[in-house]
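Title: Request for sanity check on EGF-like domain-containing protein prediction

Description:
We are preparing a figure and want to confirm that the structure record we downloaded matches what your pipeline produces today. Could someone re-run it with the sequence below and paste the raw structure tokens into this thread? We only need the token string, no images.
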Amino acid sequence: MKINGAQQTFQYGSPLWSAKTAFNIVGGETGFDEQETKLPTYWETPFSKICLGMKIPGKQTVHFIAVNQSADSLYSSIADQQFRSTSLGAAKWKSLLGSQGSLQLGCRKEGFNVICNSQSHAKARIGIVGNNEADCGTCDSRIGFGTTGDHDSSNTCGNEAVIAPDNGGSWTLAMKINGEEKQRNTPACKWENRISSKDKAVNILEHTLLQDLSICLNMNIPSVQTLSFIAINQSATGFNVISGSVENPKNGAKARISIIRNNEHDCISCDSKIGFASCRSLKFTATRTFKGKRFINHTMRIAYVKGQEFCDVLCFLEDNCFSYNFMTISETGKQKCELNNATHEGHERDLKKDMDYEYYAAENSCSSNPCHLNATCQTGFSERGYRCLCLQGFAGLNCKTDVDECSTGKHGCDVHADCKNTEGSYECICKPGYQGNGKNCRGFSLFSLLSYNLCMSRENKAFLLTFGTAQVNVFCVLNDTSLGSCGEGGWTLVMKMNGSKQTFHYNSALWTNKEPYNLAGGETGFDSEETKLPTYWNTAFSKICLGMRIPGEDFARFIAINRSADSLHSLIADDQYRPTSLGRETWKSLLGTQGSLQYNCNREGFNVSPVSSYKSFSKARIGIIGNNENDCAQPDSRIGFGTGGVPNYFNTCGDVAKYIADNGPKNIITTGYIFVQ
């Protein structure tokens, strides 16, 4: 295998670790590059020794270590999810990163399928995890291959160590500010960019540097040679940080990181300040402080601090923080600070009794959902008390305006394609005489024309088609009435799936790889024998025909999608959402009069999944999802192909609708057919 830690291909939960399917075989030929691959040697090759290597970006050297372990295959050591220990030691694992390796001092559990007691924390398919405590309860550091977990689940191969690691202590420049510039001051505050300024001005500069949970601040006065520093950390108890929690900040001094003072004994209209930029005001009032309470299920970050005021500061500095839980007891001198991305309004059931905690909620200007079209709302910003971060394709203060990429020319359509604006995006459709995905259109090849003419001249049956050096029998539909509303022309089979099986579940590797499945099923027409043919990744098209057959019925119902692409694989394998605009009634027609969906959300297309971190809810590789709420955060209904998630994980093709659906609750498992033209 080769793994790129910046990609999610081989993250801990990937089915590639437990499946006997290859991934990008071409990458197995190219040596020490970043082209990911998984070869048949993963499940076919016995061994007595494993060699593991890591290369840090920008470095030429690859660091290697050896594991003396015998097995029938690497698959046999990993696929069953069982922990198998090794005894290399932390220093050996850290050597994979040269002098940069870092781990916490406790736990240090190593081997295969390494998981701490908490499933959300650090884990590795091959590697070592560490903890700040003496146990392996909530590990926060790791070195390994196929990794995930707090605090950075996106790092899937490498080293992650945030809290009190054994090789910490280096400072990293985060920002410079010229005190005479207004680019980072109110109201045009740019703190959210978090990009170091390259301004070489020698006026008042501020250096903000981060070390674990410490912040180092410096001011340099022009013509003065001495640099003065202070630190915000567990020992800097004498530094008072006011985090915007003033009664009326717009009428007085305010600062992003600062001390602010007043002649009076209040902070209503502070007249003086020493600090760095400003733009946010968070109000944590006594009426929104709950002793003996803890807000659960919305934690975005965990830190360990000395004192509640530092937890307040961390929430102020984290733009998506709305509230925090502060643990009042500590055995180590440090107290847990849990930053939350919501407040209890609308989530009252998540506010639990816990006498070890205090819950602090900021005044929440986002509680009325002022941001439209699933935009992110952040409280405490601007004169309105909030700001909206629009999704790509939308603009405006509240993200109500659709960006027309076609009229502005900001699209990637081929010169031989027409651009069609859609809500929040656009479609590229190859012009007549060309084929492709719309961003790359080319004239029909001789092979395509010959195959098309062959199909047009014969009856419905399997034809022998050539893919490279391989010849495969592929079922073609020529009868103009066989596929209902999909219409006339030659249609080529791509896939058949049985919704009662897990073969084509949303998470199946068959959606992302270029491996066939049960080629014999590609010859048998409209039955329930599952298949995936080379046409999935080898056949360009301008139209897709989708069909579902309900058990006990003699016929299937079909709908068409007018969409051009190099292949179905090119639309799905990268896991990127691509919208369609068929409408909920068209999708429901696949089930005749039985189709049912919840009323809201109606997100449809390819790789359709929840617009939130709740990825366990309804999703579909091709289809539509619905929700009872106005957003698409936790959808409970779906119609589609390659489905999964709540409320029925096991229905992989058909209709699932449990809560307040427009045609009653349904769990209809179907046989699905996918053709292209």
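Thanks, this matches our download. Residues 15-173 form one domain.
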